Amino acid sequence: MGQTQTENNKRKDNLVDHAMDRIIDFIKKNQLKVGNKLPSESYFIELLNVSRTVVREAFKSLNAMSIIKMSAGKKAEVGEFDDYVIGIMLSHALRTEQINVQQIWDARRAIEIRTAELAAIHHTEQQANQITTIVKNMRLNVSNLEQMTKYDIEFHKLIAQASKNPILPVLVGSLSNAINETNPVLWRVRTTKEQQSSVVKLHETIADAIIKSDPDAAKQAMEDHFDNASAWLLKAGFN
Questions:
Q1: Rounded CA separation 179/149 (Å)
Q2: Could you give the CA distance from residue 33 to residue 78 in angstroms, rounded to a whole number?
Q3: Which contiguous run of DSSP H or E holds residue 68?
Q4: Nearest Cα to 222, choosing from 208, 236, 212?
């Protein structure tokens, strides 16, 4: 009896998974770094003794995971560590109610309190200037939800970059996508200009502590910011 379509698909999936593992292993064994070129698909077809379809699917999957980067007409290269894939997974989990907003906020709180502390120690003058510019833009756009959300995300990502720990920008960036989900709701319950302005003030306090290189004050200011946000999330119906 011939194989069913389901069995054929399962076998192909197993071959693709195996090919992905071998390509990742190739990167590791050859100590390839970000931007280094990988051999052609034909090389891996011969190396792994599989079809072009299997290698192509493996390349596509690794590209989607940012492990490799593919561009039309060019050889694939080693991808850069970023927040894209984790951000998509978290957004999907949030929208399908596998996790909730308060859980995202709790994770962000734990990570970003430490991030602010490190940023106060390690930031550069250029990063201090960028943080200053962002909070000024937040103040100027306090009544513009779209712009406020944009600058809010930039603010937290920049602080993570200033921490000098390469893992933190990825975690903060992926978790910050939740801001896009929650800000519209939070802005509906923060109905007065004073309430909206207080959000900017909290960010200004964080920025001031980081720029003054005061890790204790930066840590406390970020903690105050998340305590305030959690209280408003409860008022908005998130629990």
A1: 7
A2: 6
A3: strand 68-69
A4: 208
Provide the residue type at 196 as one letter. Q
Would you say 199 and 206 are in contact if contact means Cβ atoms under 8 Å apart? no
Closest by Cα among 77, 80, 96, 78 to 88:
96
Complete domains list, the chain, with CATH: 5-78 (1.10.10.10), 84-235 (1.20.120.530)
> 228-237 — which CB contacts under 8 Å span 24+ positions?
228/198, 228/199, 228/202, 229/105, 229/186, 230/102, 230/105, 230/109, 232/186, 232/189, 232/190, 233/101, 233/102, 233/105, 233/182, 233/186, 235/189, 236/182, 236/185, 236/186, 236/188, 236/189, 237/185
* Structure token digits, residue 19: 């090919």
Tens-level pLDDT at each residue, the chain (239 residues): 455 666 555 566 789 999 999 999 999 999 999 999 999 999 999 999 999 999 999 999 999 988 999 998 889 999 988 888 888 888 888 889 898 888 888 899 999 999 999 999 999 999 999 999 999 999 999 888 889 889 999 999 999 999 999 999 999 988 887 667 677 777 778 878 888 899 999 999 999 999 999 999 999 999 999 999 888 888 877 76
Counted residue by residue, the chain has a size of 239
